[in-house]
């Protein structure tokens, strides 16, 4: 199975800050990676697909980059509504696997 | 709009079975597959398996092989996930999620609202 190592597991930042989350795959997954946002009590919502493509309707302050084994998710300017847990997910091979999640809080 | 609507919460005893439904609307059912993902309380996301909306082919997570069955009813655009021999560690929110196409190896773009399954004696 492909292991997805996400870091940090949690972070606290101020409104307007730049926030960066990393995800490392245990083997090359090309660019077959999604980033999801999950708010408490809600289903995950896809923000980024194929590592760097913004899903329709998602604000441009969210972005993704990377290929191979190392990926980065960035919120350019953190907003109060961005409080959530973020997950990466690989779809290069079965079983589909997720990172452990990053809980983002406001300082 | 594209929507997945799941059945309601369930409470089951250890050893019982549960069957959760996921009704799709707003798109051509046979052009996409559906994955099931679960989330134990306070934990991360775990992929359980996938079913094709086109021909009913399935792929299951190895740890659930033999306990899980996914089926699809194209006449009602509904997929079902049955989990048998329930244990306390099966307590979780269960989500269905549409894949980007009819392949098991895919990201997921639309998610159901989740179904809470509680296993308790």
Question: Which terms would index this structure?
Answer:
heterodimer, A: 107 residues, seven-stranded mixed sheet, four-stranded antiparallel sheet, 11 strands, 50% strand, B: 121 residues, mainly beta
Structural notes for this entry:
The complex is a heterodimer of chains A (107) and B (121). With 107 residues, chain A is mainly beta. Chain A has strands spanning 4-7, 10-13, 19-25, 33-38, 45-49, 53-54, 62-67, 70-75, 84-90, 97-98, 102-106. Chain A is globular and about 35 Å long. The model of chain A has no long low-confidence stretch (mean pLDDT 98). Chain B is built from no helices and 11 strands. In chain B, the strands form 2 sheets. In chain B, strands 2, 4, 5, 6, 9, 10 and 11 form a 7-stranded mixed sheet that branches. Chain B has a 4-stranded antiparallel sheet with strand order 1-3-8-7, with no helix packed on it. Chains A and B meet through strand 5 and strand 10 of A and strand 5 and strand 10 of B.
Mean pLDDT of chain B: 97
Shape of chain A: globular
The chain pair with the largest interface is:
A-B, 23 and 23 residues
Measured distance between first and last alpha carbons of chain A: 36 Å
Distance between the termini of chain B: 40 Å
**Count of alpha and pi helical runs of chain B:** 0
The helix/strand series of chain B, from N terminus to C terminus, equals: EEEEEEEEEEE
Name the quaternary structure: heterodimer
Mean pLDDT of chain A: 98
* Helix-and-strand structural type of chain B: mainly beta
Query: Can you count the beta strands of chain A?
Result: 11
Helicity level of chain B: under 10%
What can be said about this structure in brief?
The complex is a heterodimer of chains A (107) and B (121). Chain A contains no helices and eleven strands. With 107 residues, chain A is mainly β.
């Amino acid at each position: 199975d492909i292991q997805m190592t996400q870091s940090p597991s949690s972070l606290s930042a101020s409104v307007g800050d730049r926030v960066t989350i990393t995800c490392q795959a245990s083997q090359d997954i090309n660019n077959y990676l999604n980033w999801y946002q999950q708010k408490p009590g809600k289903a995950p919502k896809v923000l980024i697909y194929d590592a760097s493509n913004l899903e329709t309707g998602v604000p441009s302050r969210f972005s993704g980059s990377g290929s191979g084994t190392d990926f980065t998710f960035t919120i350019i300017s953190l907003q109060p509504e961005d409080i959530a847990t973020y997950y990466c997910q690989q779809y290069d091979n079965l079983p589909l696997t997720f990172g452990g999640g990053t809980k983002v809080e406001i300082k | 709009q594209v929507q997945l609507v799941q059945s309601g919460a369930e409470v089951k005893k250890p050893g019982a079975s549960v069957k959760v439904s996921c009704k799709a609307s707003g798109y051509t059912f046979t052009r996409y597959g559906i994955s099931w993902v679960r989330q134990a309380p306070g934990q991360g996301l775990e992929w359980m398996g996938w079913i094709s909306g086109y021909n009913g082919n399935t792929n299951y997570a190895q740890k659930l092989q033999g306990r899980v069955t996914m089926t699809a009813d194209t006449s009602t655009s509904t997929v079902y996930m049955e989990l048998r021999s329930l244990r306390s560690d099966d307590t979780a929110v269960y989500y269905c999620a549409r894949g980007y196409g009819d392949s098991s190896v895919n990201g997921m773009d639309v998610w159901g609202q989740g179904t809470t399954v509680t296993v308790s004696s």
